[in-house]
Structures are given as structure tokens and as C-alpha cells.
Amino acid sequence: MSKANKTMPNETELYDLADLFKVFGDSTRLKILFVLFEGESSVGDLATSLNMTQSAISHQLKILKVNKLVNSRRDGKLIFYSLADEHVRSIIAQGREHIEE
Amino acid sequence: MSKANKTMPNETELYDLADLFKVFGDSTRLKILFVLFEGESSVGDLATSLNMTQSAISHQLKILKVNKLVNSRRDGKLIFYSLADEHVRSIIAQGREHIEE
DNA sequence: TGAACATATGAATAGTTGTTCATATGTTAA
DNA sequence: TTAACATATGAACAACTATTCATATGTTCA
Fold it and tell me: Quick one: which residue's CA is nearest to C9's C1'?
């Protein structure tokens, strides 16, 4: 080993990790996740409850999905999004603990 | 309550939370934090071990400090930075768990 | 005091990102 | 099939961000 020590992840993991945190680093996406904490929701309902356009929500949902923070299922014309796993909750919970000090 | 439900944080907390995650959303800052996981380090040593300019590291350390992720102490000409608290470790650990699936 | 060293900082720039707008895709019901 | 509805997507633009460069600030030692 030259510059990195034993606990430094490799470049790929570092970038993946940074990318993951970037996803959490936007208040619109956080709002979507907080809504989904309560249960699945359709795109239109998310747009309504967050008072944003359908397009903006859809773009952000795509980012959340690509990063595997949410899943989706279609039911007729509607598409319902839901939390992908519990890491989402715990990461956000740790973040909240940090800022409440 | 109108648009927000009982678990939705207020706007201020949401923005603070997004800002916190933004700090983690950069690979240079993550690298700095991983080095600091091993113990405190001076600005120059960080620059050397990460193979980056002193200025770039200093700018990023400022962001980490403003967001209370690191502390600093001066010892002569050197300034040593260290992790501010254990939330930093746990947030990053949760992130790593998520991407390793 | 002045030189040498370590760190911080402001301005500039290139690259990235979130939203909007227009429109495309997909689904249902008549 | 066609209209109406729900969602996705691409392009464009404004806002933001990380690095570089030049230089300022702060510290030590001779």
C-alpha cells in the first residue's frame, strides 16, 4: 500500500459512497423519503402532498430508484413507490441525531 | 397540518439534514474522514496522503468544520484535524452497508 | 525583525445538478 | 381505436460546487 491505509476503501467504493450520500443531500428527495416512511405513494400523490410538479417528482424518483432507495410497482395507471430497505431509515436517523445537538 | 404529516420534519430541519448529507457526498471529503478515522492529521499530511493540493484540502476541511464533522487544534505551525464525533463513523458505516448488497 | 514554513482565503472557472417545459410512453375505459 | 389520465423523459437554463491560482494570515526560529 502506498497512499491509502488499511481502512481506506478503494476508489470505486469511495465514489459509490459519495454518490449515495449525494442522493440524500437534496431536500426534495428527503421529503419524498419521509412521505414513503409512512407507506407507499403514487407519483401524483407525492407531487400533490409536496406541492411540486409531477415532472420534478418523477425526475427525483428516478434518482432514488437508480440508487436503490425506492422500489416501484404499477397498478393500472398509477405507479406506487415505496422504500427499498431499512438502511434508508437508519441513515436518515443517524443524520438527524447529528444535527440535533 | 396541511401538506406535512406527523413525521415530516420542518423546512429548517430538512434543509439542515440535506446540507449534512451534501457534506458526505464528495469523495475528497470522504477520503479526509477515512484518514481521520485512524486519528488526527495535519493539513499538510492530509494533502500528501491524498495527493491533493494544500488549498483544496483546506477548503474541504473548512466545510467539514463548519458542519461540525471535525475539530481542529493548533500545535505550533501545524493544525491538526480530528473527527468531531462518532455519528460520522456510524453514518458512513450505514452508507457502506447500503452499497454492499 | 525577517525569513521560512504551514494554513486559510478570495476570485475565477469548469463541471454538476434541480427544475421547468414540452412531449413521449403507457394504461384504461368507452 | 380514441380520449383521457398517469408517469417518464430529454433539452435547456439557472444555481451551485470543487479545484486552482495567487496571496494573505499566523507561527517559529535565528
Answer: B59
